[in-house]
Amino acid sequence: MKNTVFPGVLVVAGLAAGVAGATTLEDVQARGKLNCGINTGLVGFAAPDANGEWSGFDVAYCRALAAAVLGDPTAIEFVSLTGKTRFTALASGEIDALSRNTTWTYSRDVDLKFTFVGVNYYDGQGFIVPKALGVNSAKELDGATVCIQTGTTTELNLADFFRANNIGYEPVPIETNAEAQQQYLAGACDTYTTDASGLAATRATFEDPSAHTILPEIISKEPLGPLVRHGDDQWADIARWTLNALIAAEEFGVTSANVDEMASAPTDNPEVNRLLGTEGNLGEMIGLPADWAVKAIKAGGNYGEIFERTIGESTPVGLARGLNAQWAEGGLMYAPPFR
Amino acid sequence: MADLSYVRTEMVPEQAPPPSSVGVLGWLRENLFSGWFNVLLTLLSAAFITMILAAVLPWLFHSSWTAGSLNECRQQIAAAYGEHAEGACWAVIRERHLQLLFGFYPSELYWRPVLAFVVTFLALAPVLFPALPRKMLWGSVLVPFLVPWLLWGGTLWLPLTVLAGFGLGYVALRGVSGLAGGLGGVVAAAAVAVLWWLFLAGPVAQGAHALFPLGLEPVPSRQFGGFMLSITIGVVAITLSLPIGIVLALGRQSDLFILRTICVGFIEFVRGVPLITLLFVASVLLNYFLPPGTNFDIILRVIIMVTLFASAYMAEVIRGGLAALPKGQYEAADALGLDYWKAQRLIIMPQALKISIPGIVSTFIGVFKDTTLVSIIGLFDPIGLSNAIRADTNWNGIVWELYGFIALMFFVFCFSMSRYSMYLERKLQTERR
Question: For residue A209, what is the nearest residue in chain B, using CA coordinates?
């Protein structure tokens, strides 16, 4: 499809690229670009730098997927989506995959007809309080004023938690995370609640982070992961196993630094060989070149490398691996075998 | 005649007014200290202003321009102005001001939006300032074809073929009018032009491009952002909403039932719906209605919605101007034997528009500011970009500096529009003071 961008004819030239019948993989390859839905801006997960280059934890998955499918981690059209526009963009085919800190829930999977291809970050809702408040547990927050973003699942989780523990609270509705930071620092609320990853990122920006503490209670499960549309299982498999390849690569010690060397000749570990395409025909099964996983890993490193670079303890966000450690290290990251 | 009163035989020379009633002192006395109540108010206001400035000025100037992150800013400010100094971190503006102006537009192509901006202003100049030569208007006609090409790039043949549609329409108008009368000519012209644009313009442009490749590097809409996006949406909506609004306002007053019903229905529907709803329709709902795979440019969709929205408001503002016009003006036009369009053009509209200027400019300013709402559907206008910039770990937590910069830029645009409207009102002030 020739990409004419003059708006006057876009009305006319709208009906381009007949999709009927073509698979998502064929569409993406014909287009030469992956349309990947990301956040309009979330610390550590998706943010543009001064040159307009996107980076972050969710963005890294898009790049790995583009590398696996097209062999080029930069062959991406990033489509920034808000919480309200993300699902229609995916359902209507505007994007091929959505990697936008989206919680995997029953109704999104079943009712909205999406396929979650896995979990790339296990999050949960927490509370941040000033140390001066002297609170050590969320259950001591009886009667507290709580800053809460409206229209999110966090609002419902909060109501559930306080009702289950039979304590009262006073909500202070706010719209955005930036507003919440200001309100919380100005003392408009005793505590601010959102996903724990967001709380950590928020606390890192305070003038004196040590004066604030994140309470130990995590009151909800927020498994965040990439998703695709129902109806194209091959594409869902590609998206799923790209994520799994990144997780497995960490487990087997394949990094962006040594992947070329390990892929150049078969190693002692047969599963690594299958993953990197030096043995077996896993790539052919999924409709991709044999070295698809090599390219995905080279794009931004394995899961652990991506985590450390974007949201890990060495970054200002400073998240510990916690639940997101490999299963062998007590976490939940567990890639099914490449066989 | 001894008890004569004193009669002055010469005039006392003019004296300068007492020093307490002229100059700075006189102005102060008259305006600020003319009574005990005003003295009190003056002192209170002065105390209030001093308080505000004492809080804001140190923050403005105890600032850091060179840091690479918010924490670095804080360290620099603490090092320069003491441990507890509060200061602005202008470094974020220094690093991101081009992004706030141009969004993700490729930096080597910044000259294109800048040139488009200049060209647009040159095109508007003869419309805005009647002192300029009328011949410049012929250049203005070409600008709607030139500016989109500059912004979006692509082949030069496309705007040329679109322009050719008008030429073909004109030829048809001339040819058919002679044979089938005026109405037939208009219908033929419209049919020829629309058929050309729908079916031939695209292939012809591509064919011509294949033979003589003339063009600019295409820039997709997704890379538009910042003030460039706001100005693009704002200028198109503003320039189109005025003529559409005039037509709607006239239609609403028309005696033709169907025409009037359509105009009233459109105006009342669009005014009854918030702009955000229209934007969501543009970004979300249309995706479901249009056939899958349709590539209907998102910025174009937004521009259409904002234009429709502004037109409905504009129609009501102009209707107010029409209603304010004495009935005698209409009757005078009839008495002169002018037909409907001539009466509107020569007598009604010049007066109605003049009356409506403050309302029209208010609507313009409102539309321009409303363009920030597009951040809600994920476009990167300045507000959307400020969120994206905050998502950078270096700048997370910065609020006032970004909003301050955006507010300043908006103020510059809106204030100039407002000053221009006052200039226009003064210039057109002829009667009925």
Answer: B71
